[in-house]
């Protein structure tokens, strides 16, 4: 399985980098995982609705340029589908079973994802109705993907 995490914005916090590196190391036993960091669009603090859409569109173009036609895309969105760890594990297992060996998880910038990215997504995923920093979502996502592999292999993992 080839998994890409395509994300907007640079990761600066050392503690997050350490956690992400740990889960990337753990996941290397199960899958090839790449984190693709794309620059966020510089924008002033107070944007109009139109300006927000323009920022998301520019970031969306960068995201879409990194996605191949044969990639199964899962967009992380606050209004996406909530799933249990077991449900995510089952989905990843089914994708592998049915020949979808390329998966891309998309994490947008602080304004979210463009309509074009959401339209390209095969599925959506929400971890909560709460808002999390997109940098923290990388760590949470990697932990859940790792947990999914452990579940699918019947390997122990704390609950």
* Major sheet: 5 strands, parallel
Across the major sheet, the strand order is 2-1-4-3-5
- State the assembly state of the protein chains: single chain
The CATH superfamily is SPOUT methyltransferase, trefoil knot domain
Q: Would you identify the regions where 5 or more consecutive residues have pLDDT less than 50? A: none
Order of helices and strands: EHEHEHEHEH
Q: Your description of this structure?
A:
- By secondary structure, this protein is α/β, with parallel strands linked by helices.
- It has a single domain (2-152), classed as SPOUT methyltransferase, trefoil knot domain (Alpha/beta knot), CATH 3.40.1280.
- The chain is 43% helix and 18% strand.
- It has five helices and five strands.
- It has helices at 14-27, 49-64, 85-97, 115-120, 134-152; strands spanning 2-8, 32-38, 72-76, 102-107, 123-125.
- A five-stranded parallel sheet has the order 2-1-4-3-5.
- α3 links the parallel β3 and β4.
- α1 (14-27) runs parallel beside α5 and α3 crosses α5 (134-152).
- The radius of gyration is 16 Å and the shape is globular.
- The two termini are 25 Å apart.
- The mean pLDDT is 94.
Summarize the structure.
The chain is of the alpha/beta class.
Key terms:
single chain, 159 residues, Alpha/beta knot, 5 helices, 18% strand, RlmH-like, methyltransferase activity, S-adenosyl-L-methionine, transferase
List the helices and strands and how they pair.
Layout: E1 2-8, H1 14-27, E2 32-38, H2 49-64, E3 72-76, H3 85-97, E4 102-107, H4 115-120, E5 123-125, H5 134-152
Parallel strand pairs: 1-2, 1-4, 3-4, 3-5
């Amino acid at each position: 399985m080839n998994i890409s995490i395509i994300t907007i914005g640079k990761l600066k916090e050392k503690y997050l980098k350490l956690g992400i590196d740990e889960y990337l190391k753990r996941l290397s036993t199960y899958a090839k995982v790449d984190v693709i960091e794309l620059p966020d669009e510089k924008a002033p603090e107070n944007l109009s609705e139109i300006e927000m859409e323009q920022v998301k569109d520019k970031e969306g173009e960068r995201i879409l340029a990194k996605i191949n036609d044969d990639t199964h895309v899962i967009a992380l969105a606050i209004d996406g589908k909530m799933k249990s760890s077991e449900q995510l594990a089952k989905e990843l297992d089914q994708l592998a079973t049915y020949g979808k060996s390329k998966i891309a998880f998309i994490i947008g910038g602080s304004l979210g994802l463009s309509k074009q990215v959401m339209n390209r997504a095969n599925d959506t995923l929400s971890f909560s109705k709460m808002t999390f920093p997109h940098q923290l979502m990388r760590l949470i996502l990697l932990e859940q993907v790792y947990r999914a592999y452990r579940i699918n292999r019947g390997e122990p993992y704390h609950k």
